[in-house]
Design goal:
Blueprint: H1 13-46, H2 52-103, H3 121-151, H4 159-199
Helix pairs in contact: 1-2
């Protein structure tokens, strides 16, 4: 809740001017109706022998101060309407501004209306929703970081390196087989020679 006074009273010109014109229309209807009623009374009391202009002048003489007072309070009424309407147009504009920030994926600020503003319950609803959105956004960010960390893990082996290692293994096995074969042939020749010597 903020206790700072609002510097600009006309913060939503369309809405506030509509209200002001509505009040002005009612004021004109009231002033015109009062004038007609007093004029009718003046014509009945003053008699029918006088002209319409005489009745109007007589009415102004008797009740002119009343009409001057009604006209004098009009600016005060208009200013009060603007000032009063700013107490609910101001909070709505602040709410719209923060909602636009959320829609644009920008960081929004918690609402805090002035002490004499209307609709303080909107601050509780909006701040609760904002806190929940920030919490969900934090979970989403943490999940994205975990996915990125998993993607940046140990790199897969290069297929060319694997093929080279396989060739080396095959070559080593081939050499081992050839060596064993040569050794067996040598042993066979020695045994054959020893057998021939025995027959002699």
């Amino acid at each position: 809740m903020s206790f700072h006074k609002r510097k600009q009273q006309l913060n939503d010109p369309v809405t506030q001017r509509t209200l002001m014109w509505r009040v002005l229309r009612h004021w004109l209807l009231f002033g015109g109706g009062l004038f007609l009623v007093l004029l009718a009374c003046e014509m009945v009391v003053g008699g029918s022998g006088r002209s319409f202009g005489d009745h109007v002048r007589e009415l102004w003489t008797r009740h002119g101060l009343v009409f001057l007072f009604i006209a004098a309070v009009l600016p005060t009424i208009a200013y009060d309407i603007i000032k009063l309407s700013s107490r609910f147009t101001g909070p709505v504009l602040r709410l719209k501004r923060e909602l636009k920030r959320l829609a644009s994926d920008e960081p929004a600020q918690p609402l805090a209306f002035r002490a004499n503003d209307f609709w303080h319950d909107l601050t509780e609803d909006f701040n609760g929703a904002l806190e929940r959105i920030q919490e969900l956004h934090g979970h989403e960010t943490a999940a994205a970081r975990a996915v990125n960390a998993a993607a940046d893990g140990p790199a897969a082996p290069d297929p060319s390196d694997t093929a080279a290692d396989l060739d080396e293994v095959v070559a080593a096995v081939g050499q081992a087989v050839a060596s064993e074969t040569s050794e067996r042939r040598g042993n066979g020749r020695v045994a054959l020679g020893a057998g021939r010597l025995g027959h002699r």
